[in-house]
Specification:
By secondary structure, the protein is an all-alpha fold. It contains nine helices and two strands, in the order ααααααββααα.
Length: 242
């Protein structure tokens, strides 16, 4: 699984530099404690697992009007999941700290993803254009920008109060926290530096926040294996995960 492989490589990279804390009396370090400390070491001590407010913001995520959430799922589940797929796919290159890697550059490339496929502009099967060219134009943007838009719109549908501003929704808060980290990563990526350890810190922070968001919008976590495949970004026929 992409997320598991990325975390494993980060842990291995940090193992030599990691100095385990002296055990307290009657304390046995658990595997989870060790993983946490290794990740903190790899990220230069950034607080990846902090944010009690964000971690506890899962209540009420499944509530809302009957039609709003299913429709939002059909519209945005494919796009969000494809964004997560490509986000995780660049993990191994982030571990190598090489910002010139294709997977990283393409994720932020304004021409890297087809957001709207080209459609022919025939009328009843006949091209009526004088030049005979009825080919439509596709709309392109970066996968990250499309991920931002779809995450926000999907998150905005998970509400219990139609009058509540989007910024007060736990889903939107989680999405914006993710965007904050990824916007910073995008700035660093544009510099195309090699051995950029700061990007690793930002990526890991974003990864933890992303799992919070996915839980709130009823999608599997990043370590579930669900995102190992590509996803159709067209509007789905159902709101179910397939």
């Amino acid at each position: 699984m992409l997320r598991a492989c990325t975390l494993l490589m980060l842990c291995c990279a940090a193992a030599d530099a990691y100095q385990p804390p002296q055990p307290l009396q009657h304390h046995t370090q658990t595997r989870q404690d060790l993983l946490r400390n290794l990740l903190l070491a790899a990220a230069g001590g950034s607080l990846l697992f902090g944010g009690s407010e964000m971690a506890s913001a899962s209540g009420g995520a499944t509530a809302g009007r009957y039609t709003t959430i299913p429709i939002a799922k059909r519209r945005y589940y494919g796009r969000v999941q494809e964004g997560v797929h490509e986000f995780l796919a660049m993990g191994p290159d982030v571990v190598q700290a090489d910002m010139t890697a294709t997977s990283i550059q393409q994720f932020f490339d304004p021409q890297g993803a087809i957001v709207v496929a080209a459609k022919r502009k025939d009328v009843n099967g006949q091209c009526t254009k004088k030049d005979g060219d009825c080919r439509g134009k596709e709309v392109r943007d970066s996968r990250y920008n499309d991920m931002k838009a779809s995450m926000y719109l999907l998150g905005n549908a998970f509400r219990t109060d139609q009058q509540k501003p989007p910024d007060r929704l736990p889903t939107v808060k989680a999405a914006k926290a993710f965007f904050k980290e990824m916007d910073e990563m995008e700035k660093l990526v544009k510099k195309k530096r090699q051995n950029d350890k700061q990007v690793q810190q930002v990526y890991l922070a974003a990864l933890e926040i992303l799992d919070t968001y996915l839980d709130l919008v009823e999608l599997p976590p990043t370590d579930s294996g669900n995102y190992d495949k590509e996803f159709d970004t067209l509007v789905g026929e159902t709101a179910r995960i397939t």
